[in-house]
Design a protein that fits this description.
The complex is a heterodimer. By secondary structure, chain A is α+β, with helices and mostly antiparallel strands. Chain A has helices spanning 6-14, 21-28, 39-61, 139-147; strands at 76-81, 84-86, 113-115, 119-124, 130-131, 134-135, 178-180, 186-191, 195-202, 205-208, 215-222, 230-237, 243-250, 256-263, 270-271. Chain A has a domain at 131-271. Chain A starts with 5 loop residues before the first helix and ends in a 14-residue tail after the last strand. Chain B has two domains: 1-102, no CATH class; 104-175, Orthogonal Bundle (Arc Repressor Mutant, subunit A), CATH 1.10.10. Chain B is built from nine helices and no strands. The N and C termini of chain B lie far apart (76 Å). Classes of the chains: A alpha+beta, B mainly alpha.
């Protein structure tokens, strides 16, 4: 038996709407919902978004506090000190007995704490990594050469570049041009003709994992007076040796007095006079 | 409201059909309108407002229906409300059966026939809303009508008597 469904739909279409237009207006007039168009709300949201984006961009574009040289250069960090001075205890003020009126103020006020105005002092944080004959190699040292492309180079000859300006060295650091890996003391060094070998450095000892290495080109720098930074290539014959030790002595002004190195037989095999404008290395025999 | 006003009648009829036994129509209309109001600025083509609202209403009903799976539909309450709106009790009963039958249809078919028969959209408009071809909409309408007719077809008493007699005769011959 066929059923005609069209009349059913006609009935549905003829039904009055269960919700009137006035009711809908009432929904939108509910407190908490802005009546009418809510474009102002979206405009506000848009403005806030733009403000946030511009603020983030401004923060990114602020001049960096770091200089270009990198972590080896001392950072000038203004430190603010709040100095508190305590006055000595003020003497007890004795009221005369004849006085009938009670003292209006306590006779003893205790130590007065006065705050001096903020004193801003700029202190240079010196990076003192030098110990006598030892130094720790960190990654910042490795970045030293990369961040100083204009440093004068020493070709290994007899006459290193000299500086005309003599002033005491601030820091004496040796920096081996080595590529740090993830492990701090497990470092790959440029060895031979640009080949990479693994070198383990502990304190002032280098241990080579690969005994096939014959020549190690070490680069170290003495960024002494700041104006005569130089680097010296030091070639060590590693044939038959696996450990290379080095060390130095510096005086109280930071001038290098002595540099020494030796290979693993314990015998000082190479001493070099590292004459420099700022430091003089004495040959130890 | 200026955009919404001409769409009001069709939208409420759609909501009445969709919400039957699941949620009260005015609740559905209110929830849908609030959603549309919040998202109004993001609707690029204001002509698509009705389609957007219908889609929102369908989603709301679907989420409510999922929760009702284990509790049953409010058909009696809905029928009582329908009787208050319909011109007569017979027509209310017919519409009640129609709504129940619509609920059994697959969603695409149900949406197509509701939009075509109840709201009054053309096949082309429905095709745009459903992101389908016109022929696909026609097929959906055809199948929906067919299924509705099957659902609504009463089993005549004569057919019932004939069927039961056949069963009895079969049993007697076996014994």
């Amino acid at each position: 038996m066929q059923v005609d469904i069209d009349p059913l739909f006609q009935h549905v279409r003829k039904l009055p709407p269960e919700v009137s237009l006035e009711q809908v207006r009432g929904y939108l007039a509910t407190p908490g919902i802005p009546a009418g168009s809510n474009s102002w709300y979206h405009t506000l949201k848009l403005k806030m978004m733009i403000g946030l984006i511009l603020g983030a961009a401004a923060l990114l574009l602020l001049p960096s506090q770091h200089n270009e040289i990198g972590a080896l250069e001392p950072e000038l960090t203004p430190s603010v000190k709040r100095v508190a001075t305590i006055d000595p205890i003020s003497p007890i003020q004795v009221q005369p007995l004849s006085s009938t009126t009670a003292p209006t103020e306590p006779s003893y006020l205790g130590p007065e704490v006065k705050e001096t105005p903020l004193m801003v002092s700029v202190e240079e944080e010196k990076k003192e990594t030098i110990r006598n004959g030892e130094h720790d190699i960190d990654r910042n040292e490795n970045d030293y050469w990369n961040s100083n492309p204009d440093l004068p180079t020493y070709d290994g000859g007899l006459n290193p570049p000299l500086c005309t300006e003599r002033k005491p060295a601030v820091t004496q650091e040796f920096s081996f041009k080595i590529n740090a890996t993830d492990d701090e003391d497990y470092i790959g060094a440029t060895v031979g003709k640009g080949r990479e070998y693994d070198v383990r450095i502990s304190r002032n000892k280098l241990r080579y994992r690969n005994d096939k290495v014959k020549h190690l080109k070490l680069e170290f720098a003495v960024p002494g007076c700041g104006s005569c930074n130089w680097k010296k290539f030091r070639t060590v014959d590693l044939k038959g040796f696996e450990t290379y030790e080095y060390g130095w002595k510096i005086d109280e002004n930071g001038n290098m007095l002595e540099f020494w190195d030796r290979v693993d037989n314990g015998e000082v095999s190479r001493l070099e006079n590292l004459t420099h404008c700022c430091s003089e290395v004495k040959v130890r025999k | 409201m200026k955009v919404y006003e001409p769409l009001h009648d069709g939208f409420v009829r759609f909501c009445s059909a969709r919400s039957y036994g699941v949620i009260e129509t005015d609740d559905l209309v209110q929830e849908t309108i609030l959603v549309a109001f919040e998202k109004f600025e993001t609707i690029r083509d204001k002509k698509a407002l009705l389609a957007f609202m219908m889609r929102s209403a369908s989603n709301i009903v679907a989420s409510k229906a999922r929760r009702l799976k284990f509790r049953g539909y409010y058909d009696e309450e809905a029928f009582e409300r329908l009787k208050g709106v319909a011109p007569s009790a017979d027509i209310a009963a017919d519409i009640h059966i129609l709504y129940q039958s619509l609920r059994k249809l697959p969603n695409d078919m149900r949406e197509a026939i509701e939009l075509f028969e109840i709201v009054g959209f053309s096949i082309k408009e429905i095709a745009e809303m459903q992101d389908a071809s016109e022929s696909a909409v026609k097929v959906r309408l055809h199948r929906a009508r067919k299924k509705l007719k099957e659902e609504l077809a009463p089993v005549s008493s004569l057919e019932q008597v004939t069927a039961s007699l056949a069963i009895l005769i079969g049993l007697g011959s076996l014994s």
